[in-house]
Amino acid sequence: MASPKAAAEAFVKSYADAMELSLQSNTTVEACAHALASHYTPATMNFTMGHQTSANGVPDFWLTGIITHLKRFDKSGLGWRIHLKSSRVEPLSTTAAACFLTWEIEPAKGEGWAWENIYGWRGSQDAGGKGYWEYIVSDNEIGELIGRFPEFMQLEV
C-alpha cells in the first residue's frame, strides 16, 4: 500500500487532470464537472469565508454545484481555463493529508491570477482505494473572485 503522502499526491494529480480538461477546447463544462465531482462524496464539507456547505444527502449535489460554479466563470467573461500551478501535501495521519493546491486561471481577457485552496484528503477503501476530498477551504478562491467581480456568486446560470 502506498504511503499516505504518495496516495494523496496521486489523488491531487487526478484532481488536477480533471480540472485541466478546461484547457481543452472540445471539453464541456459538464464533462469537466463530472471529472471533478468524482473526487467528492456526500460527506465532503466546503468551508468558505465563514460559511459551511455540505451535500446533506442530496444526490449529485457536488456535481450540480461545480457545474454552476464553472458556468459563473464563463458568464462573468473570465472563461474557465484553470490549471494547477503548484501543490504541497502534508500527511496528518495514515489515512489523511492536508493538500495545499494553488490554482491559476487563464482568463479570456486580461491578466490571470492564482489562489490557494486547502483540501483535506481522506484515504478510503470505499472510494476504490483512491480516497476522496473530506473538506475544502476555498476562502482565497472566492475572495479573489469577489474582489474582482463583486457579484460573481449571484450570477444566474
Give an overview in words.
This protein is α+β, with helices and mostly antiparallel strands and 157 residues long. The protein has one domain (4-154): Nuclear Transport Factor 2, Chain: A. Helices cover 32% and strands 29% of the residues. The protein is built from four helices and six strands; from the N terminus they run ααββαββββα. It has helices at residues 4-19, 29-37, 61-75, 139-148; strands at residues 45-48, 51-54, 82-93, 96-105, 113-122, 132-137. It has a six-stranded mixed beta sheet. α2 crosses α3 (61-75). The longest helix has 16 residues, at 4-19. It is globular and about 45 Å long. The N and C termini lie far apart (43 Å). The mean pLDDT is 94. It comes from Cladosporium halotolerans. This is SnoaL-like domain-containing protein.
Keywords:
157 residues, alpha+beta, Nuclear Transport Factor 2, Chain: A, 4 helices, 32% helix, 29% strand, SnoaL-like domain-containing protein
Number of DSSP-assigned strands: 6
Strand content: 25-35%
Q: Which of globular, elongated, flat, extended, rod-shaped describes the shape? A: globular
The gyration radius over C-alpha positions equals: 15 Å
Number of domains as seen in the coordinates: 1
Task: Report the oligomer.
Answer: single chain
Protein name: SnoaL-like domain-containing protein
